[in-house]
Amino acid sequence: MKPRVWWRNSDFLRHNIIFFVGSVAVGALNYLYYPIVGHLLTPATFGEVQTLISLFLQVTIFLSVLGLVTIHIVANYKSDDQKNAVVLEFEKLALYIAIGLLVVTALFQNQLKHFLQFTSPLPFVLLMLALIVSVPFTFRGAYLRGKQRFALASAVNIIGAGSKIVLSAGLILLGAGTAGAIGGLVAAQSLASIYAVSYT
Question: Quick one: which of 4, 129, 168, 196 is 20 to 30 A from 113 by CA?
Answer without folding.
Answer: 168
